[in-house]
Amino acid sequence: MTNSPFYPIGTPGKAWGEAELGQWQASQSRQRRYKDDVVPRIMALADRFEILSYGQIDYAGEAYSLFALRNGAPDPSLPTALVTGGVHGYETSGVMGALQFLETRADDYVGKVNLLVAPCVSPWAYERINRWNRDAIDPNRNFTPDSKARECTALIELVAAQGGSFLLHIDLHETTDSDESEFRPALAARDGEDFVPGAIPDGFYLVDDSENRQPAFQQAIISAVEQVTHIAPPDDAGMIIGSPVVAHGVIEYPQARYAMCASVTGARFTTTTEVYPDSPRATSAICNHAQVAAVYAALDFAIAHR
């Protein structure tokens, strides 16, 4: 048991029921608009990319269309790559970095790769600046075909519809101070568990797949991002967010076992980026640039080593 105050919804030691879920839903207010921030930037790319409407989310009468962009009809002679952002809606540079990559660098890969980009996987959470969807489900632990999160099944269906195999999938995320102040306490409360405080690393890091390690690929991304922002050091125990640091700026998770987004393609090269926007050494522009650098470094390496 910790001395940290319990999350304001629920009873210590008891998992949430419908009443607690309803309280949490009522506490979530819209703080920005997907249709104003994200959709117009997607539509502005219609002359350069094919825009795919790959699903719709409807929460309590609020409908959100899910969009992906593709650089033309897939060429079977080329490798296929997926870029995802906004799986956690509150992780802003994941969304904005994906859009910035489309606007500034994606044309460099015409004729080199079948590129598919889903900039905002969880629009309801984007608007509420939240980790979970409206059902208090974390999408990045629920990418399974029978998932209760429509954000997840829609993306899985989009991937399946492309046909063929994927060479690369890079999933753009952030680690924020609110992970420790809001989202991990909420998770503990939802599940009726004690909240054990952790530490937020100061800097960028990557999450490799422990069941498909690609160390040279990860380091190529770290080297590119290091030109934009600082890389998170390990803590005194050699850890980042409780996981051993296996290389400069890299930790590992078993992506498929954790039902993470980066597992949905079965690609040879996969990674999850983690930008730290709350650092005094970072700005929103730096965070977006770091995501863009990660994407093009990942593409360059994967194409060169296909």
For the structure shown, list the relevant keywords.
306 residues; alpha/beta; 9 helices; 19% strand; hydrolase; M14 family metallocarboxypeptidase
**Share of residues in helices:** 25-40%
Question: Largest sheet at a glance?
Answer: 8 strands, mixed
Helix/strand class? alpha/beta
The CATH C-level name is Alpha Beta
Using the CA coordinates, give the radius of gyration: 19 Å
The chain-level mean pLDDT equals 97
The CATH topology comes to Aminopeptidase
- The DSSP helix count reads 9
State the domain count. 1
What does this structure look like?
With 306 residues, the chain is α/β, with parallel strands linked by helices. The protein has helices spanning 18-27, 34-37, 39-43, 92-104, 123-128, 150-162, 177-191, 215-225, 284-304; strands at 50-59, 62-70, 80-85, 114-118, 168-174, 205-209, 239-240, 243-244, 250-253, 269-275. Helix 4 (92-104) crosses helix 9 and helix 8 runs antiparallel to helix 9 (284-304).
